[in-house]
Specification:
Layout lengths: L6 H20 L6 H11 L4 E2 H8 L3 H13 L3 E5 L7 E5 L1 H21 L5 H14 L3
Antiparallel strand pairs: 1-3, 2-3
Keywords: DNA-binding, Transcription, Transcription regulation
Protein name: MarR family transcriptional regulator
Pfam families: MarR
Length: about 140
């Protein structure tokens, strides 16, 4: 089997290409890829435990820790001890973080629309179905 025929290789290359392209949207806001993943995840949730953010973003503990520290320094997130487990930390977007998320989201929607403009709705739905069936979740 040739490398270009390997599913994992093709998906990894596509992921890299899309990530690099998407970075042009969030980078002007001073966000790195891990920071954007955290902001995007929190933008769709009220508050989350940091360990759950790691699972949702597919980032490791070190990347999450660094991203959260940087986002806290930028005043984009707030951290508070969990009421259930004082060792755990709940993280939420600050007002500033919510504002940035709300600014970036329409730009990401435009970016996505441009990326899939030559794909029919049926093709896109099939693509999503195939990706979901290949996912570990």
């Amino acid at each position: 089997m040739k490398l270009n025929d390997m599913l994992a290789y093709k998906v990894a290359m596509l992921s890299n290409d899309l990530s690099q392209s998407l970075a042009s949207i969030y980078r002007p806001f001073g966000l790195s890829m891990p920071e954007w993943r955290v902001v995007a995840t929190l933008g769709n949730n009220d508050a989350m435990l940091s360990k759950n953010i790691a699972v949702a973003t597919r980032l490791d503990k070190v990347q999450i820790s660094r991203a959260l520290q940087q986002l806290e320094n930028k005043q984009l997130v707030t951290r508070m001890a969990s009421e259930r487990d004082k060792r755990a930390v709940n993280v939420a977007l600050s007002e500033k973080g919510k504002n940035i998320f709300n600014e970036i989201t329409p730009l990401v929607s435009q970016w996505q629309a441009e990326k899939i403009k030559n794909i029919t709705a049926d093709e896109y739905n099939t693509f999503l179905k195939v990706m979901n069936s290949l996912s570990d979740e």
